């Protein structure tokens, strides 16, 4: 292959200046690695969630679910018999832990094998690898389950083994009757997060006698759904099958956007490094480029030399970045998954998804960044006549003339960014765009600011270091075409470090203050593994027992659940019994209909308060009264909103705060308790830690509960906070 002599000039220069070439390669590699790693982590978590939901939803077009509570089995009979629906299947599902798999969280899916055919083909697929004996045993023998072959092999499980299933506060023993081994990778991955059983076995394990979780349907696009809705209980809804997964995906969207923005910021910093490297390379070769111009080489060919060099080195950097990104992505998957589990919902990621799209996107981003950053230096190499290309002073004189224009452009860009930030409202994506615009605009101010700062420090450096001290600031001013870009890149890096650090520290301080305002019981009790999420149920027998404990002065109960509003949207509700010091509980109100005493009286009489996030989500006023309508078991009920408060427990959706008595008045079938707060007697208060350990020893194993003292729960919450921002801190360092 014939190589252009001009291309050889670019190659020869790169090999003679390996450090410069390495800087360019490094700038591209780190930016690409960040993009690829974050994309792998986000896509792996997203793929695991999609497979998990798809394995349960199957081919259903619609689902009937109840919020709160479950569906009666009689509803399934009515729909199939009275309405004549054929493509309909009941399921019972819930989260369980498999003890033999190191307490791996899995979805238990109880099915009716005779209704499953149109929805999920795990049992009827000839390629599933399931023997007929195993299928018959699943149908006729109680407490039998199926697992995927890949999951069983990972934990050395085989048919005939007895497995220990932890469901809430109950422990069940089941027998593994067979293994599912679908022929396609998608089904295999979906089954990795699933335990399959007959519906009656699932009902027994999840303590749901006579109840089902969902009813799956396959309906034509133009089907009249009103007859179905007419049969539904007040707490049930018919919705598209994908709606719940879309809602949960939206909960993590801001978190994923935050990570993606940081990865792009790393690429922006890398672009400054690329620009500076290419620009310095052009300055070094100005005599050579001037000579080439005198010999007849055209502007286009000079432009091509510089861009070819940038393209070649960017390609090398992008390839290295892809490899680094895959390695970093595998490490980040665990951190991203842990954060999602801590804050949003339980997720198990069994594999790392490295897609061609991710690799192509990262590679093209690296090439694009390299070419974009090299465009101006390449243009500058062609923008002067041959004779002036030999004069180094020309470039600096030109830079001095450009300073006013660069300053004006920077101010315009900053102004545009400020406008975008003011228009952002609650949009995180627009806010990030505004911040990026302001940062880029600030970079344009670097030459002017550098020039004035050097003039200010020159007398000081002269006095401190003599003539050498005077020369350093002067040389920086005389080489602004090169030094200003380096300073701008450093400025961006320092800005990222300071800005993100201040944000995290400020947010952490706010969370500490918020925790102090809401955690004032002495000991907190929750279902095992759910200390920071309001989920699950606590055995009523434990509540009766703890009331009689001699060291307990008072208990407070919390029910965390989901109900439906008038438009069938899912609404998080936190229903509390009365506190001894209710005024302290409402210290975080940002608006109230009146004094705190008035608010407490109103809540005691059936009104509600809402979190600030909830108010913004539903466009409710933040400084005035409003109402919300919820679907109760007796029909729609409108509640007066008498207060709005700050809260960080559900940062994406917010919640409604009401009295537990109010909740049980309108949802009488749900008598569960999700968390219990214990207030100790004055005599027992100094022994809080000792009593916490005693209660753990006495009740934790029998009732599958977790006991946390006030200070340990705060410590756990802050540990989750710090773990959440571990990724941000790591990306911040890489971005700089």
Spell out the blueprint of helices and strands:
Layout: H1 5-16, H2 18-57, E1 62-66, E2 71-72, H3 73-82, E3 88-98, E4 104-111, H4 132-140, E5 144-148, H5 149-154, E6 162-167, E7 170-180, H6 185-191, E8 194-198, H7 199-205, E9 211-212, E10 214-217, H8 226-231, E11 236-240, H9 243-284, H10 286-294, H11 299-343, H12 356-382, H13 392-423, H14 428-444, H15 446-465, H16 467-478, H17 480-518, E12 523-527, H18 540-547, E13 552-565, E14 570-576, H19 582-585, E15 589-592, H20 596-604, E16 608-611, H21 612-617, E17 626-632, E18 635-645, E19 656-659, H22 660-666, E20 675-680, H23 688-703, E21 705-709, H24 710-724, H25 726-735
Helix pairs in contact: 1-11, 2-6, 2-9, 2-11, 2-12, 9-12, 9-14, 9-17, 9-25, 11-12, 13-14, 14-17, 15-16, 15-17, 17-24, 17-25
Description of the structure:
The chain is of the alpha+beta class and 736 residues long. The chain has four domains: 1-58 and 252-390, no CATH class; 60-240, no CATH class; 392-518, no CATH class; 520-713, no CATH class. A six-stranded mixed barrel has the order 3-4-8-5-7-6, surrounded by five helices. Strands 13-14-19-16-18-17 form a six-stranded mixed β-barrel. The model has no long low-confidence stretch (mean pLDDT 77).
Helix content class: 55-70%
Beta-strand segment tally: 21
N-end to C-end Cα span? 41 Å
Count of discrete alpha- or pi-helical segments spanning 4 or more residues? 25
**Regions with pLDDT < 50 over 5+ consecutive residues?**
none
Proportion in β-strands: 15-25%
- How confident is the prediction overall: mean pLDDT? 77
Shape: globular
Largest sheet: 6 strands, mixed, barrel
Which class of secondary structure composition applies to the elements? Answer: alpha+beta
Radius of gyration from CA coordinates: 32 Å
Q: Spatial order of the strands in the main sheet?
A: 3-4-8-5-7-6
State the assembly state of the protein chains.
single chain
Integer count of domains: 4
């Amino acid at each position: 292959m014939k190589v252009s002599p001009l291309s050889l000039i670019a190659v020869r220069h790169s090999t003679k200046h390996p450090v410069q070439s390495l800087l360019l390669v490094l700038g591209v590699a780190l930016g690409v690695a960040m993009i690829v790693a974050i994309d792998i982590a986000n896509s792996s978590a997203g793929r695991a969630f999609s497979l998990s939901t798809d394995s349960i939803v199957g081919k259903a077009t619609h689902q009937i679910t109840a919020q709160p509570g479950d569906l009666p089995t009689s509803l399934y009979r009515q729909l199939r018999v009275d309405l004549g629906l054929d493509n309909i299947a009941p399921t019972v599902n819930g989260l369980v832990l498999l003890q033999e798999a190191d307490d791996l969280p899995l979805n238990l899916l109880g099915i009716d094998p005779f209704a499953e055919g149109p929805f999920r083909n795990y049992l009827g697929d000839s390629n599933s690898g399931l023997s007929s004996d195993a299928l018959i045993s699943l149908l006729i023998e109680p407490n039998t389950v199926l697992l995927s072959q890949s999951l069983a092999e990972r934990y050395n499980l085989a048919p005939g083994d007895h497995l220990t299933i932890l469901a809430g506060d109950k422990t069940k023993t089941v027998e593994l009757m067979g293994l599912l081994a679908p022929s396609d990778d998608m089904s295999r991955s979906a089954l990795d997060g699933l335990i399959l059983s007959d519906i009656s076995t699932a009902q027994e394990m999840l303590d749901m006698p006579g109840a089902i979780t969902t009813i799956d349907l396959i309906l034509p696009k133009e089907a009249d759904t009103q007859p179905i809705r007419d049969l539904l209980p007040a707490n049930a809804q018919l919705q598209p099958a994908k709606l719940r997964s879309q809602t949960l995906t939206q909960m993590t969207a801001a978190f994923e956007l935050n990570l993606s923005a940081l990865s792009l910021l790393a690429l922006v910093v890398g672009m400054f490094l690329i620009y500076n490297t290419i620009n310095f390379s052009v300055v070094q070769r100005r005599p050579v480029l001037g000579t080439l111009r005198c010999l007849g080489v055209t502007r286009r060919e000079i432009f091509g030399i510089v861009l070819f060099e940038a393209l070649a080195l960017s390609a090398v950097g992008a390839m290295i970045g892809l490899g680094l990104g895959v390695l970093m992505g595998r490490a980040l998957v665990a951190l991203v998954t842990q954060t999602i589990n801590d804050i949003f919902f339980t997720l198990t990621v069994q594999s790392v998804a490295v897609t061609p799209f991710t690799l192509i996107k990262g590679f093209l981003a690296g090439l694009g960044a390299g070419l974009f950053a090299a465009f101006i230096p390449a243009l500058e190499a062609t923008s002067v006549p041959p004779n002036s290309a030999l004069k180094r002073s020309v470039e600096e004189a030109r830079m001095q003339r450009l300073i006013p224009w660069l300053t004006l452009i920077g101010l315009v860009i900053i102004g545009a960014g400020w406008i975008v930030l003011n228009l952002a409202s609650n949009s995180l994506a627009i806010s990030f765009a505004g911040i990026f615009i302001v940062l880029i605009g600030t970079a344009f101010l670097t030459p002017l600011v550098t020039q004035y700062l050097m003039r200010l420090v020159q007398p000081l450096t002269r006095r401190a270091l003599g003539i050498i001290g005077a020369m350093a600031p002067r040389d920086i001013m005389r080489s602004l075409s090169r030094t200003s870009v380096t300073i701008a890149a450093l400025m961006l890096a320092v800005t990222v470090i300071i800005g993100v650090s201040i944000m995290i520290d400020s947010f952490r301080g706010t969370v500490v203050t918020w925790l102090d305002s809401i955690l004032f019981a002495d000991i907190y009790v929750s279902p095992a593994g759910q200390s920071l999420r309001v989920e699950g149920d606590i055995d009523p027998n434990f509540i009766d027992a703890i009331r009689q404990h001699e060291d307990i002065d008072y208990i407070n109960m919390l029910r965390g659940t989901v109900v439906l509003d008038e438009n069938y949207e899912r609404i998080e509700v936190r229903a509390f019994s009365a506190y001894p010091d209710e005024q302290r509980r409402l210290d975080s109100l940002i608006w109230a209909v009146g004094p705190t005493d008035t608010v407490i009286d109103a809540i005691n009489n059936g009104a509600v308060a809402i979190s600030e996030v909830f108010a913004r989500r539903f466009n409710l006023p933040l400084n005035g009264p409003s109402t919300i309508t919820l679907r109760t078991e007796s029909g729609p009920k409108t509640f007066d909103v008498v207060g709005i408060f700050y809260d960080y427990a559900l940062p994406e959706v917010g919640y409604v705060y009401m009295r537990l008595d109010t909740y049980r008045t309108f949802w009488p079938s749900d008598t569960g308790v999700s968390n219990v707060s214990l207030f100790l007697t004055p005599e027992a208060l100094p022994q809080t830690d000792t009593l916490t350990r005693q209660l753990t020893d006495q009740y934790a194993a029998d009732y599958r509960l977790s006991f946390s003292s006030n200070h340990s729960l705060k410590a756990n919450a802050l540990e989750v906070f710090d773990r959440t921002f571990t990724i941000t801190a790591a990306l911040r360092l890489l971005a700089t």
